[in-house]
Design a protein that fits this description.
The chain folds into 2 domains: 183 residues, no CATH class; 186 residues. Helices cover 52% and strands 0% of the residues. The protein is built from 17 helices and no strands. It is globular, with a radius of gyration of 26 Å. It comes from Sporothrix brasiliensis 5110.
Length: 453
Amino acid sequence: MPGVPSSRGCDACRRQKKKELVHRPTLLPPLGSSAQVAVISRLVSALEVSDPRFDLSVYGSFIRDIPQRLGSNPALDAAAASLASTLPLVLRRTGTDDYDKALQPVNRATVPMLQEYGRALHSLRTALCDPVAIKAPNTLCALYLVVVTQGWLQGDGGNLPSHGEAVAMILRSIKRHRQSSWGDFENSVMSTLCFLVVMESFINPRINLDDNLWEMPEPHGPITSKDEPLNIDSLGNRYLAHVVKLLREPNVYQMELVVAYHRVRLDRTKLSALLATIPATPCPDDKAIPPISDALCRVHLRWQTAFGMLTLVAMRIGSVLSTLVPLPECMDAFAVLDLPGDLHAYRDDIVDVAGQALQYYPLGSSFMPLCLLAAYFSLSLTDGDANQRTHILRLFSAYRPGVNLDRELNDIAKALQPGRVVRNAHIASPSTVGCANEDSGYSLTASNLCTIL
């Protein structure tokens, strides 16, 4: 009827309705690019592997949460892509084809791997220079993935990777922005990086553990041993940082070092008793018969790692104590120590654990080269055992086949000579690389730092 409004509405209403239909947002999130989907697929496939030799969770349980965080942080996206592209390097010289049928092992880094790594470095540097991005936990995770990837790329033919100085500087900056809302993922990444820095500081005197890093979150997962029958307090970040401080000024803290030495020895005894409960019979080729189940393998690997790290700490303390002239008030405490005998026993333990840990090569036993370095250094502080030296070098070559052993190990030994203590060798920001250290005359130049900066 004329004058009665039609349900179709006027022309303006129809045009507006048509525009809304065209621009209506979809209820499903858009899929990422094909490259990002490929990265997620590769990471998810790798994280499903339960074989201890290739289990990425040895780098931290939080690794399993990374795929769901992709797409929210350019630095994390680039770091994950770099990690995924270098996975074939993990399979080199393992003689295995059961990891991933579509993933063929390679013996050296390819051009695409290096290109992805270059993109990851560029994205990480950009994030670290951004006052907003540096506060993001995903940037911290990207830093850790770059550290892991650089170790894989460096592989068997290069120098031992050293990231501790750069990571310590970055951690000091990030800790200022740490938020109370951080959850398990963020704290786990932070504590894992702190543990990496503390452990490297035992053999790298240029790493400065300042007061800001003393109040570190305790690590989660296999490092703490809090889920084990016995709690190993000596493996806590705070206590290890305390031991490093004592080692930097041994003449000042002689009695404290003796106390720390006894504490570490006691915890080593606890872990040794735990390891003895797991059957692991050595084979003629120096490898060990694996425990029955994957679950038992993971427990064995966790306790092996903890025992190896505690033995490293005991060797470092014992090596320093063996070079000291006891103060009058410490004479009695030193008199009951048998440091040459202890160091000999520690080296035997490292050789035994390193031989058994070969069954978990490459990822599950990634902690062993550091322990073998400490064992090699301790040889120079006693009469030296030719058989032990031979075993250590042979095992080290099994873990790092292409490394020039004498050059690498002697460089570490020189850096750890008693009395060679570098104080205040810290970096305030990436722009201050090259600042001189007044105490030691040491200058931090670009060649001394890892490529993260």
